[in-house]
Amino acid sequence: MSGAGRGAVTRSRSRRPGRVEDAGSRPAAGSRLQPSPSEVNLEKGRQTPPDTSPFAVVPAGEAQVRPLKRQRRRPKAGSLEVCYEPLAGSGGEAAGLGPSGSSPWEPPAWRQHLDNIRDMRESRDAPVDQLGVEQCFDRDAPPEVQRYQVLLSLMLSSQTKDQVTAGAMRRLQAHGLSVDGVLRMDDATLGRLIYPVGFWKSKVRFIKQTTAILKDRYRGDIPATVAGLLQLPGVGPKMAHLAMAIAWGAVSGIAVDTHVHRIANRLQWTQTETKSPEQTRAALEDWLPRELWSEINWLLVGFGQQVCLPRHPRCASCLNRTLCPAARES
């Protein structure tokens, strides 16, 4: 559980981007279509822009055909609709537009929610601020070693408190935390150094497998893409987006952990209740301005550690107590 990458090791609103002919609308046998003005004018030697209006179908031999409906007017200058290509990996509408070009959905009062959370996080004294991933790597090590340590701290942090992750990282660094150093360790030594992080036995296996892949395929560095990071054993979407932010200084998506998932649902920042962090990430990325993605993890993780607790949230001291749907229901 760690904050989003506000300071990168080496350290952004756009988001992700005809008419089908019905079989019953095809001309009947022996019928013809009225020629368009552009075709007539071409015969006269003068070309005009093609007319896209649909024309009525009439039996052959009739002299005149009237349009089914009036021609659609061309949009005036300044009235063009602007769309953006969709961001890969997101299930949302194009940035700034909802279905059929309508305004995108956004939660009521979300900006006030966010401003209040910023005020409550101003002191930066939550565990994530002191012991999160951004505080766990050796800033004096070579850049590729720093990035490797960022990735390992993220792998250790899953289902583990920041205090426990930070302790395990200190023990590993004292033993020599690098790709070659970990590959030289036997499993028993690695397990002893990372214990008692959550699921430490599985993490020993994942760390050894991932480290061997980094050595063989990436010359001891870590992948510089989300897709590459997700190929590594034990690395999930939250870890991949945080690694991109902290290690590479790139905002690739919103990192959603248990705190972000819980708070987003309590504040009703999703149109419907989401059941998993990945559903929450997709829902948030559909409407939250991209320039805010980098701070959401850091803000909500610390807020969740200090105020919006999993059990018995401290609503009485929360600046959002009159705005939060969950607080009003409690």
UniProtKB/TrEMBL annotation:
Major site of localization recorded for this protein: nucleus
Keywords from the UniProt entry: 4Fe-4S, DNA damage, DNA repair, Glycosidase, Hydrolase, Iron, Iron-sulfur, Lyase, Metal-binding, Mitochondrion, Nucleus, Transit peptide
Subcellular location: Nucleus; Mitochondrion
Alphabetical list of InterPro entries matching this protein: DNA_glycosylase, Endonuclease-III-like_CS2, HhH-GPD_domain, HhH_base_excis_C, HhH_motif, NTH1
A cellular-component GO term for this protein: mitochondrion
Catalysed conversion reaction: 2'-deoxyribonucleotide-(2'-deoxyribose 5'-phosphate)-2'-deoxyribonucleotide-DNA = a 3'-end 2'-deoxyribonucleotide-(2,3-dehydro-2,3-deoxyribose 5'-phosphate)-DNA + a 5'-end 5'-phospho-2'-deoxyribonucleoside-DNA + H(+)
Region (Disordered): 1-78
Superkingdom of origin organism: Eukaryota
Entry annotated with the keyword Aminoacyl-tRNA synthetase: no
An MF annotation (GO) of this entry: DNA-(apurinic or apyrimidinic site) endonuclease activity
EC number(s) recorded for this UniProt protein: 3.2.2.-, 4.2.99.18
Domain HhH-GPD: 156-306
CDD domains according to UniProt: ENDO3c
HAMAP family linked to this entry: Endonuclease_III_Nth (MF_03183)
Oligomer and partners: Interacts with YBX1. Interacts with ERCC5/XPG; the interaction stimulates NTHL1 activity and NTHL1 binding to its DNA substrate.
Protein role: Bifunctional DNA N-glycosylase with associated apurinic/apyrimidinic (AP) lyase function that catalyzes the first step in base excision repair (BER), the primary repair pathway for the repair of oxidative DNA damage. The DNA N-glycosylase activity releases the damaged DNA base from DNA by cleaving the N-glycosidic bond, leaving an AP site. The AP lyase activity cleaves the phosphodiester bond 3' to the AP site by a beta-elimination. Primarily recognizes and repairs oxidative base damage of pyrimidines.
Protein name: Endonuclease III-like protein 1
Organism of this sequence: Ornithorhynchus anatinus
